[in-house]
Amino acid sequence: MKLRLTTEEKSWAMYDWANSAYSIIITTAVFPLFYKAAATDAGISGADSTAYLGYTISIFTFILAMLGPILGTIADYKGMKKKFFTFFFILGAGSTAFLAFVPADNWLMLLIVYTFAALGSTGANVFYDSFLTDVSDSERMNRVSAFGYGIGYIGSCIPFILSIAIIMLAQFELIPLSMTNASRAAFLITAVWWIVFSIPMFRHVKQRFYIEPEAQPIVKSFRRLAGTFREIRKYRGLFLFLLAYFFYIDGVGTIISMSTAYGSDLGIGSTSLLLILFMTQVIAAPFSFLYGRLADRFGTKQLLYVGIAVYTVVCIYAYFMDSVLDFWVLAMLVGTSQGGIQALSRSYFGRLVPKENSNEFFGFYNIFGKFASIMGPLLVGVTAQMTGNTNAGVFSLIILFIIGGIVLYFVPDPSRYEPVPEN
């Protein structure tokens, strides 16, 4: 059957369209190159600057991992989810715009502002993800979640093309902008795109499932948090999924957030890197839609296994990567699965959790995902510094996909799983 989206589902998915500009321009493409150039000018080696970026990602993900479950329990109260979403949205979009005004020779300040921008972006995504249970039902979640990722990749291409055009025109001195100011323009484009296309989310998406306000909400939220942790352990399928997710999503996130740094260390030029990343977005969009359709036909877990298998091949291939062509092949492989594996993980979890406590449970989803994101960049950073070889750091991520795949084997498929606590 053809999927007909409701106004709420469309508005929810549009935030993927809005925030995807941050994901490609700040997390993956322009900012890492901007930072790497600043670090190189300061006399820092490629391996060390890549390691510092990995450590920075570990720091902000640790902060958010600590805050996620606590804020999630409070956000389950009526009207609180949108307030928390708004706070992190403003922090992320504001810090992204501020990146344009940081001195290009201050690599440390760039990492600090990037930390706040990343906190805002990932923090808003925690509450955005949990809104999936408010806008859709279990039977539609695979398609709706995949649709969000799909249009996100399509939407990200527009500001990305505009940013690349400005940077390339500046590189060939066809416009009166330096390369530094061209990159700064990309940061401002990202912030404006993010803000404008988030408007439907603020207008039409509301918290349908909630807990009524009560006295001492913070104290009681901590009590509910402790109770949720005990309750999660009673949901065998839910707990096993979170454990599998902890490992495989770590590898996914690390490869996405540090891919540009890998290419830079291989000596691939900025123009080639930006073009490769653009094509990755183009490929990721249709494959995200495809993952959603195939999951409905063959099962969510089976398609998650496909994604894990692709990423395992990516890690092996990355070890031998030494040319622009190799990086092209690796990027195209990543593009086939990065949206699908994230979209299905989100819908898989959304179909397992009790809707009235979705923020609590998505808080744990967040803490598993974010704590995992500490381990991956640290693993890459330490391995890269010990070996002096970034490729070895990427290859080390293979263990995360193998462990995640093994644990996922024991997780029941959501279509046959009822979230009822076991005795």
TrEMBL record:
<keyword id="KW-1133">Transmembrane helix</keyword>
<dbReference type="Pfam" id="PF11700">
    <property type="entry name" value="ATG22"/>
</dbReference>
<dbReference type="GO" id="GO:0005886">
    <property type="term" value="C:plasma membrane"/>
</dbReference>
<feature type="transmembrane region" description="Helical">
    <location>
        <begin position="303"/>
        <end position="321"/>
    </location>
</feature>
<dbReference type="InterPro" id="IPR036259">
    <property type="entry name" value="MFS_trans_sf"/>
</dbReference>
<feature type="transmembrane region" description="Helical">
    <location>
        <begin position="182"/>
        <end position="202"/>
    </location>
</feature>
<keyword id="KW-0813">Transport</keyword>
<protein>
    <submittedName>
        <fullName>MFS transporter, UMF1 family</fullName>
    </submittedName>
</protein>
<feature type="transmembrane region" description="Helical">
    <location>
        <begin position="268"/>
        <end position="291"/>
    </location>
</feature>
<feature type="transmembrane region" description="Helical">
    <location>
        <begin position="84"/>
        <end position="101"/>
    </location>
</feature>
<dbReference type="GO" id="GO:0022857">
    <property type="term" value="F:transmembrane transporter activity"/>
</dbReference>
<dbReference type="InterPro" id="IPR050495">
    <property type="entry name" value="ATG22/LtaA_families"/>
</dbReference>
<feature type="transmembrane region" description="Helical">
    <location>
        <begin position="107"/>
        <end position="128"/>
    </location>
</feature>
<keyword id="KW-0472">Membrane</keyword>
<keyword id="KW-0812">Transmembrane</keyword>
<feature type="transmembrane region" description="Helical">
    <location>
        <begin position="361"/>
        <end position="380"/>
    </location>
</feature>
<feature type="transmembrane region" description="Helical">
    <location>
        <begin position="21"/>
        <end position="39"/>
    </location>
</feature>
<feature type="transmembrane region" description="Helical">
    <location>
        <begin position="238"/>
        <end position="262"/>
    </location>
</feature>
<dbReference type="InterPro" id="IPR024671">
    <property type="entry name" value="Atg22-like"/>
</dbReference>
<feature type="transmembrane region" description="Helical">
    <location>
        <begin position="51"/>
        <end position="72"/>
    </location>
</feature>
<dbReference type="InterPro" id="IPR020846">
    <property type="entry name" value="MFS_dom"/>
</dbReference>
<feature type="transmembrane region" description="Helical">
    <location>
        <begin position="392"/>
        <end position="411"/>
    </location>
</feature>
<feature type="domain" description="Major facilitator superfamily (MFS) profile">
    <location>
        <begin position="237"/>
        <end position="423"/>
    </location>
</feature>
<feature type="transmembrane region" description="Helical">
    <location>
        <begin position="149"/>
        <end position="170"/>
    </location>
</feature>
